[in-house]
Write a structure and sequence with these properties.
By secondary structure, the protein is mainly beta. Among the domains are: 112 residues, Phosphorylase Kinase, domain 1 (2-Layer Sandwich); 180 residues, Orthogonal Bundle (Transferase(Phosphotransferase), domain 1); 64 residues, 2-Layer Sandwich (Trypsin Inhibitor V, Chain A), CATH 3.30.10; 109 residues, Trypsin Inhibitor V, Chain A; 58 residues, Trypsin Inhibitor V, Chain A (2-Layer Sandwich), CATH 3.30.10.20; 63 residues, Trypsin Inhibitor V, Chain A, CATH 3.30.10; 78 residues, Immunoglobulin-like (Sandwich); 52 residues, no CATH class. It contains 16 helices and 91 strands.
Amino acid sequence: MRICMGCMGQYEEDYQICPNCGYVYGSPPKEAYHLSPETVLKGRYIVGKTLGYGGFGVTYLGWDAVLERKVAIKEYLPGDFSTRMPNQTKLTVYTGIGEEQFFAGLKSFVEEAQRLAKFNPLPGVVDIYDSFQENGTGYIIMEYLSGQTVKELMQQKGKLEYGETKKIILAVLATLKEVHKDGIIHRDISPDNIFITDTGEIKLIDFGASRYATTLHSKSLSVILKPGYAPEEQYRSRGNQGPWSDVYAVAATFYKMITGKTPEESMERAIKDTVQEPSKLGAKLPKGAENAIMNALNVRMEDRTQSADAFAQALNSEDVTRTVVKHKKQDTGKFPVWLKLLSACLGAAVLTMIILVKIGVVADPLQSVRLPEGYVNAPGLVNATVDDAQTIIETQGLILQIMDRQTNEKVPRDLIMSQNPMPGRLVEEGSIIDVIVSAGGEVVYVPDVTYKPLDVATGVMEALGFRVQAVEEYGEAAPGTVLRQDVPANTELPRRSIIQLVASKGLENLDTSLDVEVPDLTGKTFEKAREELLKSGLYLMIGEERYDMTIPASQIISQNPGAAKTVKAGSTVSVVVSLGVEQIRVADVVYKPEADALEQMHRLLVDVIYEFDDIVAQGNVISQSIEPGSLVDVNTKITLHVSLGRAVTMPNLVGKTKAEAESALSSLGLKPSFSEQHSNTVASGRVISQNIDPGQQIGIDTEVAIVISKGKAGPDHIPVTEVKLDIKSLSLTVNETRSLTATVLPSNATIKGVSWSSNNSSVAKVDSSGRVTAIGPGSAKITVTTTDSKKTAVCDVTVTQPVTGVKVNPSSITIYTGQTTELTAAVQPVNATNKNVSWSSSDTGVATVTNGVVKAVSAGNISLNKTTLSLVLGASENLALSGSASAKITVTTQDGGKTDTCTVTVLPDATWSSSNTSVATVDSSGRVSAVGRGTATITVSAGGKTVTCTVTVNVPVTGVSLNKTSGTLYPGDTETLTATVSPSNATNKSVTWKSSNTGVATVSSSGIVTAVSAGSATITVTTQDGNKTASYSLTVKPLTKAIQLGAGQYGVFSPAEHLNNRSNGTTVYEFEFYTGSTIPANGYIFRYYNSGSTGMGIYFNSSKQLAVHMRFESYNGTVTATSTTFQPNTFYKIRVELTYPSKKIFINGVQQSVNTTGSTGWSQTVQGVKYLGYPSGSLMGPSGQASGVYITRIYIKGTKYGDYNSYKTFSVNIANLSVGQTSVTSDGVTLTLKGTSVQNYRLSNIASGGSEKTVAFKGSAYQHQPPVMREER
């Protein structure tokens, strides 16, 4: 039994080809420097075919002969530092700096394996079985995985759904969480390093790739810096890498899986970040998950999600906020990106040397270094044209391959903007240099916004990224609309360009008092309509533009006001203008991947022609039949030529030796596979047949099956007379396979060998066993040819591309009744054989469809969102017309019955009008504008139905004022305030009144203010319209309780004997009072006397001064306070102290200067009558009343008659008495009031004559705070 090096299965040694996998026994290694199959390592591991290889190593299929299991063998083989001679096992390491790098990487390679082995129990990591060094290098023996990578899965399915992707990514994060704990960083996570086994397990493969080769000169740098997946810190030689570095790569992989787009390189993003959220690229995922992905993709590691566990938690959370990062603009100069990378990885001195070399100051040291045979330094192609780059590449023996065309603000269009490998890298002759061509800076086509409202035009321009500068001038366009724009429509401009819009101020000297009739504009061109309106003194404004397949572009569809309406000159007529058949601008998709190109061409009918191309990468667009930027109708046919990759012409190998055939094929990049058969006509060791006919154009890397002669069969040769196929015609779909069986006759023929060939390998290919694989749609002939006698049989193969789906575009539309529009159906894939489709409508009463052309039939009933509308002068508001109907338009493929739908919403094609355009106007979109005070009816008609809205235009209130702004009242008083609303013609003059403190004052709805109690309040009037306000500040003064003195108004103290003066004592009299408006001359405040000639009085004299007159026995004199003259309407406190022989008078706490006339001693009255004020008569002193004086407090202290050692005190604060009270008793003395009583009076709060002030308390009587005086005894 033989072990197959292609699958490690066993089969009989008589067979040269494995019946299980088709591997040809004795096949050479994939590359000359790979280990040959059947090489044995460590005495137990058998090396099989090459599974994959890259910059730092090779992975082989292997067999563990001890444990008898299939394994994977990874060999450390960095191509920049080492190689292997054919048919040898030992590696050759280059001397110099490469040698140092090689062994440093080898050490990391082995150490990484040992560290990863501890994670064997972890399901997400490939099990490590063994690691060792042999053949001058290192090996890792690991678990063999059967399945596919995420990259391969995406090649089959395209972008993946969010749910499927999340399941894979969470498994990866769970694995990373554990390995990060041990300090291991993957550094190379991408779709091709995530493996899905046949049992559904998720494995993270290729750990430690970045550790094995880490210098700038290493080709393996492209592994470390996998574009789009490597974070910015991996570009820096001293970048701080950690778990966050893997988080970035995982997020980039997630992004790629759900969008199909690889994020821009992190270094480019650090300069200008244009990565869009997945949802903007069509991915459907929760907002929280999108934020989690974008947070993990932040360029700066400080701003990025820091751990795999944190990223997993964020993906499982619904409440994740986006981390917004403000990037600092980096000064990257004008060097190409590759040079920036050099500056990051090399020291300043080295960078300087490189620049000097580039400009020719210093000789290129690479030219003086002997390169390994067959190797060259990759040339610098950035900023070169494709033609120049091709010339440079060919001189180096390299191959140019264009991978994409991308927008670049810094590199001009059609110049190369980036390359891989980077300049200076050591590469093998014949290597491919991948380049991306610049599409130049992003440009936008300027739209035509003339005759549209300025705000609308500005919004359109700004939405496209332009900046608007608006100026005004007089012109024929309606006021407020765009008269002209300084950049013509359809001009290409970079985003952020400034465009000047000239807004019209209307025509000068237009007589707007004239009545004019609106002409009928429908069916006329816009230019003709403009001329007619101008002649009538009217303005034209574009209210709306619509695509319409039945009405030519620039033709008026409808107008408002309608024809024959009478309006004032200077009025504006709003029109709906047809744009004709919808047009789109053709995108530039040259060099773009086919899938991206088809996405951008989804509104066109795309035909794809596949052809070979020497420089455009396989699957990318070579050319397009319509020039980019052209305006074409939707559904215009366009042809894209898509590359099948580089092609070679199949040579004729029949009759050549095996070595000659192998050399010829290898030199063309083709892969030979050999088998042997007897032949009576072809010499031994020479080619009998080849499975691909000579002269065919085939792609590189195509496998060619060659049959080599083993010589004649012998003397008893029985020749072949016929060969038959079990199937004569075969129908296959793309990628389907079927095996043909050839029967060689006669059955006992000596040589039964056959060879297989296809006359069109781009349609179907056939291997050496007769297994046919469908490649692309078309026809091919599969021919079987016998080795002996060259008998043939043919099977006709027809390959079709089945329909996998269909997408209708757009997925939803809104059109007006009577309008038509065209839908497109994109049958998938684009090369499907049968693209026939049928169309249907779910409700033909709403919309019909014929060959994709939809016609709106009916919108049903109509209604307005408002039947009445109130506007202020100058304001505007949109009325919404309801009344729509919808139908589902379904497209169905003839092949497979695949369907997709478009929701068609039909709106009424309405006509709007106003009954009074001097009050309100309405445009074609239903926007009502208030132009004058009054009422107008807005009428909208559609589909034979009419609805109306009554519009009232009001003059708004601009302000309100009051006839008074402040005032003073006493409790119970009222005052009427008058509010004046501005302007005088305001529609709504209603106002409301409010008091800030109703405990102090209230206000009625008519503005009448009523004072309630002492305090302050603000009365505010507010307009109902506009909430304009004015205020009135009110002070409510308190009522003061007092006893009024005057004619017939006095008080009598009893009993009469109280309060006498003695020579050995002091009698005190204190009175607090308000003087009123007039000072009473010669009026008494207090007086007592008996029937004799004894008495004493306190009074105002004729000079309005306070005087005290005393008369007793031989004494008769007057003491007058000359320093104070009493003032009207003022509070005073007087104190008279009588102590023989001293007489003192205090007014408001200040002792007065006195003048004495006559002789004064002390007075004594035996049961004398004492008065507050005086009733009448003139027994002594002046005769008069203290009229208009208001007493608020009384304090009298003296001795009782006959008991001169006993003091009596009469003290009363009037404020403590009740209103209307006529008597009060204190210390046995009663004051009885005559002709007066305690009352509330409106007395001013004016400062007393001295330093004392009156103090008002809300709601209580006036109280005077007396000065501190000595205690009398």
